[in-house]
User: Fold these one by one.
Assistant:
Number 1:
Amino acid sequence: MYARNLSETAASRKPRMPSASGYMVAAVAAAGALFFVLWWMLQGEENPWIPAGLAATVVVLVAALARGVVMRRSWNRYMLDERRHERFDRPVTRRSPAPGRQPGFSQSEALRALEKKSTETDVSAALPEAHLKIFQLCGEFLDGAERSLTTPGLSPERRLKVRARQERVRALQKHHLLTWARNSALSLTHEAQQRARLHEKIETANRALDCIDSARQKYPEEEGLERSAAVVRDFINSSRVAHWVELAQRASFKGRYRRAIDCYRDALFYLTRAGASPEHQAAAEQITREIDLLRARLTTHKAVDSDPVTPDGENSQSQA
């Protein structure tokens, strides 16, 4: 009865997955309303749709930039609420112990079912959410075992058995939480690599960092989580560096050397934050050489532009 009431209460409080669709629909609606209002107000001007369209575009762009912050906070709340409230059906229906039977019988049955479900999840290469559910189920088992230890008249032998079961479940709990964090981070990082825009790459990669940080709150001493977080952060920095290098190359191709130098400096800034590995140092040296080359081209163009020209079309130096 207690387990059924607990599941019904948690089901009514189950959090919803955060979605950006409603947010963006509201932003587009607001931009559309602003467009028509400004268009009506500027009827006396020439081409009133131009300033109205620019204002509506600015509203959509600001909403899109703010979406990353909003979605990240919503995702964090969702993950915390799900870990706190989500419950799912137990694989084995609990039965009241028969008269004269020790209460540890149902615990043994639940432990066997939990270990079986854990093995099936590992073998089937399930989605990361399946590992998160096993982690939550382990937490429920540990809570029940802790309550059973407070039962009056529990013999020392039964107490030792309960402690042993707790250790086995804690090992399962840690395994599945780390597996969830690792697989979620890998999946989200792969998804970020497929994104075309920089802000989408960073937003998706930050979700991977959120998963890793959630596991680190439970197991802060786990070195594997720190390595996974370092890989994701390196991906974010490399994406930023590649973005600014591409902008610099485009600007240099168009002859906008000052703009290209500024973009290379931004790339160099993010590259220095990534660490002092040999690969990063080699890339930083390459960018520095590109900056020096662009400065030399800029100086040459200034010298050519400032060289006086004679009426015959020849410069004064060649005429002399």
Number 2:
Amino acid sequence: MRIDAHQHFWRVADRAGAWPPPTLAAIHRDFAPEDLAPLLQASGIDGTVVVQSLPSLAETRQLLAQARGTRFVRGVVGWVDMKAPDAVDTIAELARDPLLKGLRPMLQDLDDDAWIADPATAPAAEAMARHGLVFDALVLPRHLGALRTFVTRHPRLLVVVDHAAKPPIARGQMQPWHDDLKLLAKLPQVHCKVSGLLTEAGERTRVAHLLPYMQALWTAFGPARLLWGSDWPVLRLAGDYAGWLATTKALLAAVQPAASADETAAILGTNAATLYRL
């Protein structure tokens, strides 16, 4: 089974001036299941995990309803305000839908880089763990220290780092992203998505440019804790669906020439199916 562990749907009319702006013409329009379906078929992808893109319970409920009517969507990662007084009850209510597989606060957009390390998030985190939900971490390199504090407090909570924490590929830099991510990866419940790398790469999109970052991910997480995702339609800012899948395969072949077929299959689907209970 091949799984795209990270994609989005949205309607511009629902976003009330939120990202993306009209200047990003490639993605400033509606994206629905019928837009993605032919890309999945052409690339041999069996199913997807659709991920929230607004800090909104309404969007989460809309995605769950959309998933129920979309054969290829196997799970939803939604949003809850983890510091809200009713967060635990809201998580319990949403978790009654078997298609809800995880939750994602939009940490990269918050003013406080240490927001997730606040002990006030603990009741929501523990509720997520009780309901078997995955914590998707939408972070930048500067958030990795606070994320490690949070993860250390909640060893029963499964965590996946979205877009490899958006390394500074366009600048050709590795630090401090590399060392901070390696420290985070020492915690065994942390996984990482091989997604979003092209949109962080600027002009440095060749395999040779991306390879040091893929090598760092392989070394830190190994083939059992890496998940492939397209980040479609954001991907359209930097490339196309089939091209990103081909680039990922080339990176895996370069970083580990002796990788078994099972290891490659795990990254391209099995790991996502296991982590998200698809």
Number 3:
Amino acid sequence: MTARRLPPDRLLLASHNAGKLREFGALLAPFGVELVSAAALGLPEPPETGATFAANAAIKAMAAARATGLVALADDSGLEVAALGGAPGVHTADWARQPDGTRDYGAAMARLAREAAQDPDRRCAFVAVLVLAWPDGHSASFEGRTEGSWTWPPRGEMGFGFDPIFVPEGQSLTFGEMTPAQKARLSHRARAFAALAAACLGPR
């Protein structure tokens, strides 16, 4: 659907991920938009049953918007590894999920390295799709993509998820070794947000 201008008040981030809250908070700060998370409002996480990043982001954004009456922002993102036929892709978070419901990305990164180790092709890409949803059912989506390669062992304590094994194309540092400002210039999420900002927020 066509994008609408965002109202100059609170925006709900339909996520329980503290790393995403920090990243989006920094991206939205120049626009004066107050960001509140689904976790802070006690909203449940809806099942992500979509077959694409866009479908899963829409599920989360629409559920949050309808539950609160606020405009909601959701992202679905993941790592696509060439040697694994694009996996983990939309199942990136599932690779980290443990039996008790927590997520262990150290174990997920080890699994990736183990399953892709015999293939010399290290190409991969981080993909993010952002969906804005309004309580009346209107929505708009924006995509960003960062090409790169995976490395082992993990390097760096910054970022979150698979960041410590992802080296963006043309760079020597992993996302896990970059400062937030360095990562923001290259990340899939920041690129998707730039498209959203141009359509829905206008000039700073």
